[in-house]
Structures
1.
Amino acid sequence: QIQLVESGGGLVQPGGSLKLSCRASGFTFHTYTMKWYRQATDKEREWVATIDETGSETNYRDSVKGRFTISRDNAKNTMYLQMNSLKPEDTAVYYCHAPTVIVTPRKISDYWGRGTRVTVSS
C-alpha cells in the first residue's frame, strides 16, 4: 500500500514558522524525487518545491524562495517543508506529491497525500 501522510499544519501569525512533514510508505522512498504543492480556497493547486532523491538538488517557486526549505530524511521515509516568515498569502492546504513512482515493472503512477492545512492570520 503506497501512502503519503502530511502533518504539521495549523494556525500561525504572520511572520511565524511551521514545519510540515510528509511520511511515505509502500515504496522505495529514497529513489524518488518528491514535491510539495499547495492549494488555497477556490484556487488552482500550485507547485511549491521539489527535492531530488538524495536531497542534493532543490527548487522553489519564486514567492517562497528564502523563506521555505524543503528537505528529506530517507532513513525515516519522510520529507519536510520548513516555512519561515509566513505571510497570509501562504494560507493553503499543503500536499505531498510523489510524481513518478514505479509501482509495477510496467506501471508508473503519481501519488498525493490528503493534505495539511496552513492558516496564516493575525
Note: The radius of gyration is 14 Å.
2.
Amino acid sequence: QVQLVESGGGLVQAGGSLRLSCAASGRTFSRNGMGWFRQAPGKEREFVATISMSDSTYYADSVKGRFTISRDNAKNTVYLQMNSLKPEDTAVYFCAARSYSGFYSELRHNYDYWGQGTQVTVSS
C-alpha cells in the first residue's frame, strides 16, 4: 500500500521558516514527479511547487524565491523549505506523487497519490 506522510508543519511567526517533509512508503518514487499543494480554509487546493525525476523544479509565483523543493531518493522523501513565511501562506500543505511520469506538473489531476496534509499557520 502506497503512503505519503507529511510532517514538519506548525505555528510560526511571519518572517520565520519551516521545513516540510514527505516520506513515501510502499514503492519508490525516484523516477516520478512530486509536488506540494496547499489549501486554505474556504479556498481550493492550489499548486505550490513541483520537482521532476531529474531535479528540475517549478514554483507558483506566490512562493518563488521563498520556498525550495528538493528530494532525497535514498530516503524516498521530498522536502519543502519555506522561508520568509507570510500569514497568507497559512494552509494545510499536501504532498503528491505522480504514478507513471518523471516530469513535474502544476496540475492536480496529474497526481495519483496524496498525503493527508500538515497544517502550517503563520501569525502576523
Note: The chain has a mean pLDDT of 97.
